[in-house]
Amino acid sequence: MATQIDLLANLQIVDQSLRAKTLAVEEGQGRVAALEEAVQAQSAAAAAARGELAAVTTRQQELETRLSANETKLKDRRMRLARIRSDKDLGVARREVDLLKEETGAIETELIGVLEQVEAASAKLRGIEEELARLRAAMETEAAELRETVARLSGEIDRERSVRNALELRRRYEMIFSRRGGLAVVEIREGTCQGCRMRVPHQLINDIQRNEQVILCPSCQRMLYWRPEKAEASG
Fold first, then answer.
1. For 81-115, what is each residue's pLDDT tens digit?
2. Which is nearest to 56 in space by CA: 103, 106, 125?
3. At a CB cut-off of 8 Å and minimum separation 6, what does 4 contact?
4. Do 115 and 60 contact (CB within 8 A), yes or no?
5. What is the DSSP string of 32-72?
6. CB-CB contact of 67 with 111 (8 Å)
7. What's this model's pTM, rounded to 2 decimal places?
8. Could you tell me the end-to-end alpha-carbon distance of the chain, in angstroms, rounded to an integer?
9. 24 near 150, Cβ under 8 Å?
10. How far, in Å, CA of 36 to CA of 136, rounded?
């Protein structure tokens, strides 16, 4: 018969294995959760970058529209200059042309800056989206590996828990056996523990009859069991 220290040593081996496997699953879950957070943060950054790009693109379109309109006006004013004969009207027309040229130059200058912003915003968005794609791929890979790990370890964990429960039960049995004069498992008859002759609470009897777990007598701490055939015979 194995000694108590042998049982405890075996129990510890199982507990260490269970702990290592449980930690492996938790670490995998932690990595997936961290990647999910990174994906969410990068998705938010991508949305913000798209907003920035949309804003500067809209400004680019506005400036291009204004520039096109000014170029049309300039063409029209220059054609009118050729038809004007009055010096006064010619002066006014030339002033309008100069103002349009000045405005057009300002638009072109701003448009150049905006085009640079569009290029920078596009490059920024591309970088963010590339990183987002990398994070999503990493998350999918990590999640797939986690599913494989959980599938592989779940069965092992269940088996080892069964072994642990059996070892723990055996350890408790041997402890009770040595402390209770060689009688560790006793029957309930007519609501009474046959080890100490004390009444067992009715709720405990119901639990014992379900046979889902080992239940100890509240008085003597022996393991209790119930035989339905004897209960029926006594009835």
1. 777 778 787 788 888 888 999 999 999 999 999 99
2. 125
3. 171, 174, 175
4. yes
5. HHHHHHHHHHHHHHHHHHHHHHHHHHHHHHHHHHHHHHHHH
6. yes
7. 0.60
8. 40
9. no
10. 8
Pick the closest to residue 81 from 69, 89, 70 (CA basis): 89
Cα dihedral 148→151→155→158 (10° resolution): 110
Residue whose tokens read 């006793």? 186
Structure tokens at 215: 């239940």
How confident is residue 3, by pLDDT bands cut at 50, 70 and 90?
Answer: low
Q: How do residues 133-174 score in pLDDT, each as one tens digit?
A: 999 999 999 989 888 888 888 888 888 888 888 888 888 888
Do 193 and 222 meet the contact criterion of CB atoms below 8 Å apart?
yes
**How far is it, in rounded angstroms, from Cα 68 to Cα 74?**
10
d(CA 174, CA 208): 20
